[in-house]
Amino acid sequence: MKKIAILVAAALMSVVALARDPELKIPYSQLPEQAQQFLTQYFAANPVKNTTQKFDDGVSEYKAYLKGGIIVEFDMLGGWDEIWLTRGGNMPRMILPDIVQETLDSRFGDKKIYKMENNGYEYKIKFTDRTEVEINANGQITEFEYD
Predict the structure, then answer these.
(1) What is the pTM of this model?
(2) Per-residue pLDDT tens for 22-67?
């Protein structure tokens, strides 16, 4: 009976430990190759400080924490899902497709972007002045909001 109680207690402690830290630190080399290429292409001036992996419903997700307060989240194949700047700076717009960049440039000029999200169909852009816009892959604005 005592052994069963100890096993149950150990199992509960393991579950609690995993729940508190669902992101596991991994070496940079364990990021998908597409993610590594993305970071090299667009953020060469911002070295990677650390990388993590977590599982959401059995699917791997990755994050790269870069020097300068930049966080990039990747899907299991290494495509970017979210990029955000925690300390200001300039978000490289060339990450976005040309047609989306053209819409941003014509409608929002040089407003500073602090967060971009990509769901594969449209891009959600958040500016430092609290303006938010969603632009589809054809460059059409599908939603606009200002707080």
Answers:
(1) 0.81
(2) 899 999 999 999 999 999 999 999 999 999 999 988 899 999 999 9
Read off the pLDDT band of 80 (50, 70, 90).
Answer: very high
Pairing outcome for strands 48-56 and 59-66? antiparallel
The answer to whether 100 and 107 are in contact (CB under 8 A) is no
Q: Look up residue 130 and give its DSSP letter.
A: S
* Secondary structure of residue 132 in the 3-state scheme: strand
Handedness of CA 10, 16, 20, 21 (dihedral sign): positive
Give the pLDDT confidence score for residue 57 in this predicted structure: 86
Burial 81-120 (b: 16+ CB within 10 A, else e): bebbbeeeeebeeebbeeebbebbeeebeeeebbbbbbee
Distant-in-sequence contacts of 138-142, Cβ < 8 A, 24+ apart? 138/99, 139/97, 139/99, 139/100, 139/102, 139/103, 140/103, 141/103, 141/107
- Res. 90 pLDDT band, cuts 50 70 90: confident
